[in-house]
Amino acid sequence: MRRTFTLLARLRREESGNAIVEFLGVTLVLLLPLVYLVLTLGRVQAAAFAAEAAARESGRVLSQADDLPTALAHAQTAVELAFGDHGIDVDPSTALSFACSADPCLSPGGQIHVEVSAVVPLPLVPDFLGDTVPLEVPVRATHLVAVPEFREAP
Fold this sequence. Notes:
The chain is α+β, with helices and mostly antiparallel strands.
């Protein structure tokens, strides 16, 4: 019994102070990738929300407008505002595209198919890894809106 007690005492002395080192090692190996994953998924989800809001609002603006050039300018502003609210910079002229089911585009009873697309850069990835690792995540949203049937034809 005395021998067992001395063995336990010796094991306690040998293990003293190693818990801090093990905790730091586990933190670096597990916690940092988890934080990066949460950060990346948050940015991609914010871009998805922004694209969905931009498609919906630009479709609404396009369907309610009186003429197409003014409607396009207002729709691009809606795209810029939707992405700006989420802290994402996009070029609204390239991010927004739409197609009309009727000719002319704003004919009563017609439909407008709006598509908004953007790319989200991955955070904290250096540019020299661009050949081996994708540095961007594409995000796209579509919305179909009807032009009011009882409106004046353009």
